[in-house]
Amino acid sequence: xxxxxxxxxxxxxxxxxxxxxxxxLEREFKKGNVPGMLHTGLGQEATQAALATHLKATDCFFPxxxxxxxxxxxxxxxxxxxERIMAELFGRATGVCSGKGGSLHSANPKVGNFGDNxxxxxxxxxxxxxxxxxxxxxxxxVACCIIGDGTVGRGEFHESLxxxxxxxxxxxxxxxxxxxxxxTAVGKAHASADIVDMARGxxxxxxxxxxxxxxxxxxxxxxxxxxxxxxxGPYFLEFKTWRWQGIFSxxxxxxxxxxxxxxxxxxxxxxxERILSRTDFAGADLDRIExxxxxxxxxxxxFSKQSPMPDPAKATANVYVGWE
Amino acid sequence: xxxxxxxxxxxxxxxxVRTYVQALNEALDIAMGRDPNVFLLGEDxxxxxxxxxxxxxxWTKYGDDRVRDTxxxxxxxxxxxxxxxxxxxxxxxxxxxxxxxxxCYDQLVxxxxxxxxxxxxxxxxxxxxxxxxxxxxxxxxxxxQSVEGWFLNVPGLVIVAPATPADAKGLLIASIENDNPxxxxxxxxxxxxxxxxxxxxxxxxxxxxxxxxxxRDVTIVATMKMVHEALAAATELSAAxxxxxxxxLRTLRPYDETTVLESxxxxxxxxxxxxxxxxxGLGAELSATISEAxxxxxxxxxxxxxxxxxxxxxxxxxxxxxxxxxxxxxxxVKQALQ
Lengths: 324, 338
Prior knowledge:
The complex is a heterodimer. By secondary structure, chain A is of the alpha/beta class. Chain A contains 12 helices and 7 strands. Chain A has helices at residues 5-30, 45-54, 68-77, 82-89, 122-136, 155-167, 186-189, 195-199, 214-229, 255-264, 267-277, 286-306, and strands at residues 60-62, 143-148, 171-177, 180-181, 184-185, 206-210, 235-240. In chain A, the strands form 2 sheets. Chain A has a 5-stranded parallel β-sheet, sandwiched between helices. Chain A has a two-stranded antiparallel sheet with strand order 4-5. In chain A, helix 6 (155-167) links the parallel strand 2 (143-148) and strand 3 (171-177). The radius of gyration of chain A is 19 Å and the shape is globular. Chain B has 2 domains: 17-196, Thiamin diphosphate (ThDP)-binding fold, Pyr/PP domains (Rossmann fold, 3-Layer(aba) Sandwich); 210-337, 3-Layer(aba) Sandwich (Rossmann fold). Chain B has 11 helices and 14 strands. Chain B has helices spanning 20-34, 58-62, 74-86, 105-118, 148-151, 165-177, 225-239, 257-267, 282-294, 316-322, 326-337; strands spanning 17-19, 38-42, 67-69, 90-97, 128-133, 158-160, 182-187, 194-196, 210-213, 218-222, 244-248, 251-253, 270-277, 303-307. In chain B, helix 7 links the parallel strand 10 (218-222) and strand 11 (244-248). In chain B, helix 3 runs parallel beside helix 4.
């Protein structure tokens, strides 16, 4: 189902929230204000927006390696506080995990965020249990796990798809195929550069979609979620996309490839063109949406910077449940 | 670390004799009967009742949904356990042989054990992972290992290792009810051991060692099968006028320092007996802790009795050579008494 124009404008806003978040974060990282490592979802905004808009607070998602956007959207959507995702990346006491998780281990079950795991693929096993519990208790929720193309190399990918298929679990597998696992091209790492080919043998619906086209991405997620909510078992979606961030030392991909994806396949630029071309577009100030989101993110960054660092003594809390 | 009831005895003494396997089976049955969120998953645990018969009869009683056969997918078994526990279930996974824990090491160490901490208390992972460990039956390099050392250095994980049928039942129920991820080690040599097992529901406290035999001359701290070897050694030593105190550690992580240290302060001598290889093992940890805390009470260096530093060989002659037992413990005690 192609989104109506109001939904499309909402998605445009969501995509700008993600982009502004990542650009602001990148800037602060370069200034040395953000510790650890940085993995941004720049260029992949459409997939995250399409997924986030379909999930309910009672569903869950396991966010991928470039997940700040969907984490922040879930906070915004379900009455949480998006700035606490930012504060977590700054390692502050106000972060969603009080500074213990950081970029790759942010979670908030109140908004359905069941946490990233920096061991790629690990949560492909975990998602099975959430879905199994819901199926056993007849709770009609969707358990979504978002993975990158690199994760396909993990044993858990195959164990998970197999088990979800034999037990007909309500799992949405959303594979963000951005072409590279750090520096290794998808076609070099896997038997097929099309991940759906790898998944198809497990007998679940496998659909590949242009991850930079918000309308198509939205429609694909919509269909997948309907299938799962109807109790028809797991579903595999592959978003073909491309990440803007290079590797730690800089850009490694051919200039023509970079230019193509940034100039011609920018998901936000494409979405804007799409909105303006819609005959039912009654007019909304798209520039203003962009400015609002950028201002909102600056507020989050400021909030994070002003937030206190965690009390060092808290480092030993919550190792065990109920035991000091 | 709580120190209450450390002088207690194993819950037992009713003359109701059961094997270790039967005791575990009773524990699972009782836990499943009391809480609908408890369910079992693992390889061949359903109609077949598990490789060692621990889940026998439960599939008939509770059905496919709660006694769930899985593919040979250890990572998915533990991952599914963790995920279900995140949303309120109480899974008990069976990993057929402890040697297979390598297949799900990441799930236990990076996921289950860290879940509560890295998300700062927002999730917990109350899973129990039962597994058959230990050698002595010709199982060879991949069916015989003692694996507690692989997991000792993992904050957030609990390691429970009962030595008697009564403790097997009480500790398993307590583990299922506990909110932490628990690796539950079942030494294969103990499965047929018989002992008094109280009827019905009871729990045995976690993180509490038990004095399996009181004595004044030397403390032997042991785990699992080595508890029985230590008790046999103590009987022989007693005939020679040496009274050994045997401590069954029961929970290996976090362990009950208080009971161990109190005993060593009393006897002034300590032998730690564990089946795994010596280097980097539980014996090393216990020995270091005893030496740190009781240095001025010790009349002799702490002695470690352990397996030789090899994988487990197949031939029974070879296996017997590398695994420790009663004789090594007696030799260890004599060394500690010098």
